[in-house]
Amino acid sequence: MATHTDKTYEAELQELRDRLLTMGGKVEAAIAASVRSLTERDSELAENVPVQDRDINRLEVEIDDMCRRLLALRQPAASDLRFITTALKIVVDLERMGDLAVNIAERAMDLNQAPQLQPYLDIQKLADLAQGQLKLALDAFVEGDVSKAEEVCKSDDLLDALFLKVFNELLALMMEDSKNIRRATSLMFVAKHLERLGDHVVNVGEMVVYMVRGTDIRHPRSRDLAR
């Protein structure tokens, strides 16, 4: 992002960046709490996740308003325009990640009422991968680091492979004993929410590449053409 002689404008852009990071931090915390509420069987922790999500939603609205105001009043161009339009898109993905954290917390509250089906080791691995990707994507955004953003996009394959492993293991448990079906199905939803979370993080990575290079890599054909 360019440095400006207009200090007020510069401060407005910095505030936008800071608010996005605050929102990202709250999303990270909500995801961590939702997964912990499952792995540690802590339903009280799960009940707090929707409260965290309300803060995330409030920030989405504030950042959205801020971006539109900057576009209207500052009429930005080049890198500033890409930064603000990228921010508009990133908040949508962050807000949806917050919703996924709420979904996981709701599943956790349900699962915590029944005996644990199996150790949640791979679910925790899925969560760790998704959270690591999100942190890397936010670092890439702050630093304008394309290499980190591209790493985020590539690492999605690991998340997809682990999701498939978890899915197959849960499917086997359902086939083994019909009493496992309800709990295994809920765990499949948790795993799917974490896999979807990774997809949203990839969107952030792709937008960071666009913000820095002005290159759209959202679709495979676009990626091929960009090489």
Characterization of the model:
There is one protein chain. The chain is mainly α and 227 residues long. The longest helix has 34 residues, at 78-111. The chain has seven helices and no strands. The protein has helices at 7-39, 43-74, 78-111, 121-143, 146-176, 181-213, 220-226.
N-to-C terminal Cα separation, in Å?
24 Å
- State the low-pLDDT regions, or none: none
Shape: elongated
The number of helical runs is: 7
Give the total of beta strands.
Answer: 0
Average of the residue pLDDT scores? 91
Largest sheet: none
Alpha-beta content class: mainly alpha
Proportion of residues in β-strands: under 5%
Fraction of residues in helix: over 70%
Q: How much is the radius of gyration in Å?
A: 19 Å
Helix-strand string: HHHHHHH
Briefly summarize what is shown.
With 227 residues, the protein is an all-alpha fold. Helices cover 85% and strands 0% of the residues.
Question: Keywords, please?
Answer:
mainly alpha, 227 residues
Task: Summarize the topology.
Elements: H1 7-39, H2 43-74, H3 78-111, H4 121-143, H5 146-176, H6 181-213, H7 220-226
Helix pairs in contact: 1-2, 1-3, 1-4, 2-3, 3-6, 4-5, 4-6, 5-6
